[in-house]
Amino acid sequence: MAKILIVDDDPDMVLATRLCLEGAGHEVIEAANGTEALEKIRAERPDLIILDVMMDTTTEGFQLALTLRSPDPRSEYAEFRDIPILILTAIHTTAPVRFSPDEDYLPVDDFIDKPIDPDELVKKVEALLKKAD
User: Would the pTM of this model clear 0.85, i.e. be above it?
Assistant: First the structure.
């Protein structure tokens, strides 16, 4: 069982994601935005983060990923740099631009599009957790 932080401002999406993950035996914690997520990361030390892109701002999720993955050894979040990040977003259905993980520009481990397929979500979560071990 892993501790997973869901960062999303849509309560219905959080509930749907929570049910999938708890059904697979994981513990779930929640944050509604990037600021709350940083607090939860420090306090709860999750094993994996599922991160929405568009919250208080249209790129808040990207900004949070960049903060967490900062290569600066003096970063106050350096100890959390290796937590796997799965982007859960509808941006691919609302914009013609396509994003993919990129170490410098988008330092996340994987993407999954909304609406979620529960089996695909659990499969990606399990793969990221296994890879992180």
Answer: yes
